[in-house]
Amino acid sequence: xSLDYQLAWPCPHLTVEEVVPLGxxxxxxxxxQPVASLGQVRILINNExxxxxxxxxxxxxxxxxxxxxxxxxxxxxxxxxxxxSGTATIDFGxxxxxxxxxxxxxxxxxxxxxxxxxxxxxxxxxxxVDIGKVGPGAYVxxxxxxxxxxxxxxxxxxxxxxxxxxxxxxxxxxxYLREDTITNRFPRFRKPIRTNPMIKxxxxxxxxxxxxxxxxxxxxxxxxxxxGNMIFITNENLxxxxxxxxxxxxxxxxxxxxxxxxTIRERIGSKALTGVASVxxxxxxxxxTQMQGLQGEQAKYQQVSFRERLYAVLGVNVKRHAQDLTTFxxxxxxxxxxxxxxxLDIVFTxxxxxxxxxxNGLMLGTEAAGLGTRQVWDTFKGDRNTLTxxx
Length: 391
Description:
- The chain is α+β, with helices and mostly antiparallel strands.
- The chain has helices spanning 102-111, 235-248, 276-299, 373-380, 384-387, and strands at residues 4-5, 8-10, 14-19, 42-45, 49-51, 56-58, 61-67, 70-72, 78-83, 86-91, 98-100, 117-122, 125-130, 139-143, 163-165, 167-170, 173-177, 185-189, 199-204, 218-220, 232-233, 310-320, 328-336.
């Protein structure tokens, strides 16, 4: 039994991770095709995170300059933390030198019932995150004589600020209509982008403008299963695909096998003169006869099952379309060599378009706009110095 790649799939009309340059205004994203649906647009920055429609906002996260444990100096145990949603003060009450780990400090703050900020242990560093807001309106400010003991506001090379502010990392975006009617809708940021990130856009495309299937609704490309293995077909499905491949391939398009294929597609748009039906029928029969010969040669070197082997061409019926006399419908009936009922579960069309797939391994995923402030901190904490927007 032989096998072949399964080539035909229902087209999703989706462009995946197209690398898109910024326009001259540093706001417009010049996608190759028009955008069909706002809900399907995903903008990926530097292969790291998606920019939701509301933009990417960083949290206000103030981190200590040193990691714990911390020495709380006697009579210097007062700490006040202010954020966008309130202010609270705690007194560690140290009468003698107290040594506390980062987790112990966080435990004391939790017992105090603080709800306006969240204390986070980031690899031993003590981090205060504003849980009320993200973006420009978020901030964390520290005061009190215990701040220095906890690694905040220290002087010298390792100096840290007393306050941190959230900021807008990337602005939000919307869909806009171009003045022409060819490219139609495209995504555009609400503010100019100052940096030069690599931008990839995933978006749905109108059927009539889809480059993956050329409006045929069928995408011809090889695909892989969940385990990363190529998907193959056998038996009747293989016979069905092999027959359609030779019928829908332009004769002479393969330089190594110029005899392979038919001239059916060359007749598209030609005048419907007398004898066209008989010529089409002859093209089909001749191609299928060549396919039988190919299978005969193949059987000399490998096993070709009866279920995949073309035994006979039962009929070729060519007739004009009832509503369009310039269109011909071709019905082909074939029989395999097994004599068993045939069950098909694949589709096929003209194999001329290669699907454009993403190559960076990133899938459509969670957007920062839908996360809570703690989850936003988890998203950005790998770059504490840059994305916290400290001032």
